[in-house]
Description:
The structure holds 2 protein chains of 2 kinds.
Chain A: H1 7-17, H2 24-31, H3 35-51, E1 57-62, E2 65-70, H4 75-82, H5 92-104, H6 109-116, H7 121-129, E3 133-138, E4 146-150, H8 152-157, H9 180-185
Antiparallel strand pairs in A: 1-2, 3-4
Chain B: H1 2-8, H2 13-23, H3 30-45, H4 52-73, H5 75-78, H6 89-114, H7 122-139, H8 148-183, H9 186-199, E1 204-205, H10 206-211, H11 216-231, E2 235-239, E3 246-250
Antiparallel strand pairs in B: 1-3, 2-3
Helix pairs in contact in B: 2-3, 2-6, 3-4, 9-11
Amino acid sequence: MSSPANLKGAVEALVFLASEPINIEEMAQALEVDPREVFTAIDELKQEYNNDNNRGIQLDELAGGYIISTRLEFGEFVRRLHKPKLKQRITQASLETLAIIAYRQPITRAEIEDIRGVKAEKALFTLVKKGLIKEVGRLEKTGTPILYGTTDEFLKHFGLGSIDQLPDPDGLRGEGGPDLRKENDTEDLGPKDD
Amino acid sequence: MEYNLRLDSFEGPLDLLVHLIEKNQLDISEISLRKVTQQYLDYLNQMEEMDLEIASEFLMLAAELLQLKTKTLLPGAKKKKGGPPPEPDLVKRLFFYRKVKRVTELLKDLEDKRITAYERNSDHLIYFLTRFEEEEKQRENPLEGIQLKNVVSAFNRARIDARVRKKKEKSKEKKWHDLEGETFTITEKMEEILKVSRSFPGGFSFKRVIGNTENPQERVVTFLALLELIKRKKIKIEKGTNVNKLIIKGGKEKCPLRQT
């Protein structure tokens, strides 16, 4: 067992065959090199692939790993020949629920429903079934409601390397948000408060 | 009808409210909420035929809006103890909801950028490996050019055919029974009896003839043959020693039976 003479080529080979995002540590272990070397190699590869518009494939960081995929613009042709399992778009109702979970995780169903103003049960069921969200714990509260969070599948679906790559122009992730449960308790019920 | 279609595109009462506020080019505030309350209620009037669960959520918000409006109308509510009145909870929720809507759009953009980028996965590989096999199978489609209606009519025809055939078979069965009857012809039996009578010149018992028969039909035919022979005087019947015994004796003349 030894390290490859051409590390970049070896890294390319490893990523080429991976069907799930493959992370740097895994590759470093297989290649018996320092993870930093792998990172340098993969970064170079990424530049080569993604800056060359003549290529039909791209290399991306997805869900904490690296994966090669066909380029977006060739999707139609790929579908014609290979008929890949189509990625299904998420419906508007589910997408809104998913957005709330993505930006406010971990979060309970009741909190999601408070934000949306409508029931979220169906959307949650769909999202769990699609593997985009999962139970990440229980809130220590009456009824110990399920806390939901996003999955690696979510990152893959939206082309994100990690949850920190979510665009957040309004600072929704850090914001306190309307703590609805609390406010309901001390709700201003009108004149009698005086 | 037109309203229903429009309502369908709202994700909920908050969505509708944000829409109304933006449509009226207002900022989210308590004042704008009061301004759009009537419009909101107008929408609800169009919702009578909507799903009850959705409607109840919309109604809840209507109640909230009316409560807000009522507060400003009641004299006691106007005077708060110093300072500006706190923002209603609903305003905060709307601000927050609008942000959610914005990031939902961002997620949609991200999805668009990834949706047709296909990763290598086992599904692809399995598909690739079995593709030619599948194509081969498709080429030899055993049902090629056949439509459902063809199958249905063929089935119906077969059913009718089967019914007709069954009927025919039933009638054939009857005929076969008739033929079976014919297998024991009187002529045959007459010859048989004569043959026996020749072997037993001293006569033989009636029972010997009838007793050998296998079924009632043969018995009847044999009996008829006997009667015919008697009529033609080919044989004679005599009472035996026992009262119940009949003795058959052959005639002396040898003449062909089938003369008529």
